[in-house]
Amino acid sequence: MGNTLTYRLMNIGDIDQVLEVEHLCFSLPWSREAFINELVNNKYAVYLVLEEQSRIIGYCGAWVVLDEAHITNIAILPEFRGRNLGEALLVKLIQTVKSMGALSVTLEVRVSNIAAQSLYKKLGFQNGGIRKSYYTDNYEDALVMWVNLR
Questions:
Q1: In terms of CATH, what superfamily is 5-148?
Q2: What CA–CA distance (Å, rounded) separates 88 from 123?
Q3: What sequence ranges are listed for the domain N-acetyltransferase (predicted)?
Q4: What is the DSSP pairing of strand 45-52 with strand 5-9?
Q5: pLDDT tens for residues 91-150?
Q6: What is the side-by-side strand order in the sheet with 126-131?
Q7: Which residues are catalytic?
Q8: C-alpha span between 7 and 1 (Å, rounded)
Q9: Which of 48, 51, 74, 116 is 20 to 30 A from 11 (CA-CA)?
Q10: pTM of the prediction?
């Protein structure tokens, strides 16, 4: 396979491919308008894409407000899972937000998503609180997790 993976900042031209990833990964996918808004209007937003030979196979994003980053989403195409790409992408995002001044990172994850929770724990995230009925598709609770970058 060779080393054909590249990480870079997401831009408007990436939205079609990012939407493909989004729709394959989530039961409540974000809309095109949501991504455009994040990239054009949200001064707190930073999004990365992961490409293999110019094909976007994953992306993640965060909002950096003062010294705290909040991860909005992370997704890897199903056919590329199990290769530690989500972990590598998340590490790259954490490095990015840290360079922007973030001293801590938070996120929400479905209480049933044990695979994602174990990845986050591996990277030092700790359990915070529960957001009751956070996900509107099935009213599943979200586990809030956080990591201190100091």
A1: Gcn5-related N-acetyltransferase (GNAT) (3.40.630.30)
A2: 10
A3: 5-150
A4: antiparallel
A5: 999 999 999 999 999 999 999 999 899 999 999 999 999 999 999 889 999 999 999 998
A6: 5-9, 45-52, 55-65, 68-76, 104-110, 142-148, 126-131
A7: 108, 120
A8: 17
A9: 116
A10: 0.91
